[in-house]
Amino acid sequence: MFILSALLSMVCVFGAANAWEPKCDSAGFQIIPKPDCSGYYLCVFGKPVPMPNCPPGSIFSNSANVCVPENSIYNDCKDDNSDRPIIPDLGPLTIEEQCQINSNALIPHPTECQAYYNCSMVYKYIPRYFEQHLMECPYPEYFNAETKQCEHFENVKCGIRQAFVNGCDYKRYRCPFSNCIPCHVRMPSCEGKEDGINVYESRLWSPYYVICYKGRFVSSGVCKGDSKGRTQFFHPDKNQCVPLDEIPREHGGEMPDCVGKKDGNYPYDFGGCDSFAVCKDGQFLNAVHCNAGEVFDTFVGKCELKEKACGPCGGLINC
Ligand SMILES: *[C@@H]1O[C@H](CO)[C@@H](O)[C@H](O)[C@H]1NC(C)=O
Q1: Ligand 1 midpoint to CA 119 (Å)
Q2: 244 touches 232 (CB < 8 A)
């Protein structure tokens, strides 16, 4: 289209400054012919920008909005009077047009708060889900339309732009190819979760948990070993790291199995003579740790000094 090529060729010298100044509407984009038909002004959001004159031998046509040969039927300059109304608004400028006017422009995305167009950034290959000049703030930042930079989400007013809370709604974290680790695994959702430590849905019954703030995923963490250095898992109901003997066996834990057992004290299946399991009503109630020097005696069902204890843990042979 002519206007684009005219914009592209804007490197040139403009004619001597004219006393005449067009009146621009404040919105969008307008073309206002010069009264002598030598060229036109482009109004950009209320600001008149002089465009190069038509090439020699041609004249700007007010009805067609292009330069036409001076002595052709398209030359409508003579019929024109200088207070002729303005050529209709051609609508808002496209991103490409805005970038041609200002090649360093930073333009907020119209509907997504984390996205913006950076005219000085030109993709050779446009990444999947993106378009030319489109960039995104790192999660969970948003693009501040006033300061024209990415900022902490609590400091940005998104207005009508949608403010994504979930990192996987940012295009940059979506899987660019088919066998990538799904985004919700790499960047779990914190939507609707309390601030602080929470269950890692895609890594249930593992040492992993997530840390959330205002519905945003902040980081993931791994349960440390307990005071005895034993592995701990994150318990989703207790919302904390617990030793494996508090994790049910069907979830990879070592919780004593009390199903079908009479009420009483039982040795641990997974090693450990220094404690025993208390079963009640077929359920594991709790673990009891023996005092120093004591072990669990399976015959009496309580802790005894090792040399006086019977059973696999005790020192006595004949019980
Ligand atoms: C815009 O792109 C340029 C060139 O790639 C880069 O130097 C600049 O940091 C970018 N600005 C923003 C806000 O992304």
Answers
A1: 8
A2: yes
Whether 149 lines ligand 1, by a CB cut-off of 6 Å, is yes
Residue whose Cα lies nearest atom 12 of ligand 1: it is: 118
Low-confidence ranges of the chain (pLDDT < 70): 1-19, 78-91, 271
Tell which one of 102, 107, 121 to mutate to probe ligand 1, the residue whose CB is within 8 A of the most ligand atoms.
121
User: Selecting from 2.170.140, 1.25.40, 2.40.160, 1.10.150, what CATH number does the domain 97-173 have?
Assistant: 2.170.140
99 lines ligand 1 (CB under 6 A): no
Q: What's the confidence (pLDDT) of residue 119?
A: 96
| CA dihedral (130, 136, 140, 142) positive or negative | negative
Domain ranges of the chain: 1-93, 97-173, 190-255, 257-319
> What is this structure's pTM?
0.61
CA distance 37 to 229: 86
Tell which one of 116, 117, 120 to mutate to probe ligand 1, the residue whose CB is within 8 A of the most ligand atoms: 120
Q: How far is the CA of 93 from the centre of ligand 1 (A)?
A: 21
Q: How far apart are CA 60 and CA 54, in angstroms?
A: 6
The helix or strand, by DSSP H or E, that contains position 31, with its residue range, turns out to be strand 29-33
Q: How do 106-108 and 67-69 pair as beta strands?
A: unpaired
Atom index in ligand 1 nearest the CA of residue 135 equals 14
Can you give the pLDDT at residue 12? Answer: 38
Any atom of ligand 1 within 6 Å of the Cβ of 212: no
Taking only the tens place, the pLDDT of each residue in 13-62 is: 344 444 678 888 877 778 888 888 899 988 888 888 888 898 888 888 87
| Ordered alpha helix ranges (H), 48-143 | 95-101
* d(C-alpha 54, C-alpha 70), whole Å: 10
